[in-house]
Amino acid sequence: MMAGFRKAKAEQAALKIGMYGPSGSGKTFTALLIAEGLAKITGKRIAFVDTERGTDFYCKTIPERKLHPQAFDFDALYTKSITEVIQSIKGLPSEQYGVIVLDSITHIWEAARLAYDGKETRAGTIPFHAWAKIKKPYKELINLLLSSPMHVIFCGRQGNEFEEDEESGELKKVGVKMKAEGETPYEPHVLLRMEAVKDTKSKLATITVFAEKDRTGILAGQTIIWPTFDNLAKPLLAALGGTQAVIKSDDETSQEDAVSLMEGQKAKESESYNILGKFQARFSLCEDFKQLNDLNNEITPELKKKMTTADVADLKEAYLTKARELKGLS
Description:
Residues 13-251 form the AAA+ ATPase domain. This is Putative ATPase domain containing protein. Pfam families: AAA_24. The chain is of the alpha/beta class. It has 2 domains: 16-245, P-loop containing nucleotide triphosphate hydrolases (Rossmann fold, 3-Layer(aba) Sandwich), CATH 3.40.50; 253-329, no CATH class. Helix content is 39%, strand content 20%. The chain contains 9 helices and 9 strands. Strands 1, 2, 3, 4, 5, 6, 7, 8 and 9 form a 9-stranded mixed sheet that branches. A hairpin with a 6-residue loop joins β7 and β8 (205-214).
């Protein structure tokens, strides 16, 4: 049964942050800084999905490292397998873990695509009809992350965005985007683009974050240099509540819709059957064409909409049968 509209309320207890950028823009390090701060607040551990062994030097103390020389403390899963990631995250005990980091979501999407072993087009590409099956486990993972009571940070590589030039027909670069499944950037609460901005004079790079999207409105449109937990994630915590909304999966939603549509169809079939029976009985009692036509005029287009196509055809046949009978009597 549908719940209907009700007063809106915030049900987000954990941050869902997406970040992307080119190589060397500080994605992994920044994700760890944020995760560390969140872990301290929750008093729980960090679960880090590492698809490229990008954390190897961050889990050990390096005195020469100017920022955060001490080792980060986290538990890691080293894999690019989307199925392994899904099962491992499903098995995370929420009383033990407070933060999930996935680096890189780009590899996970590639794993989902590479898992396709069906027929390809003549051009060697994946046929259009196969994409729904390919995206299914990926969407399951995204839904799992968004519904998790744990804070989530996922990092992605940067790709170029192209559009076709209207005059020349050639593809031209119009911007950059997260290199992942096309809907991914829309999913997190906050989407951050990272860049190592080089000073033209000193040639030194400054790690910079551009807040491309922030549903809380706290960081929206801001540019943050040398991002840390304190200037990036901490300001967002005030927007969180105590309850985490669970988003239904596509499978759950489609099953509910199928059941609802089936029940609606059964109800229509039942009503249609009753209408047909009533008019068949009344047609049989008609004694002349005036009675027959008056009764037939009661069958309006609105009434037919309540009936199945088959029952409308049977109703017409009942009318014609009675008309032939009356004609034979006249």
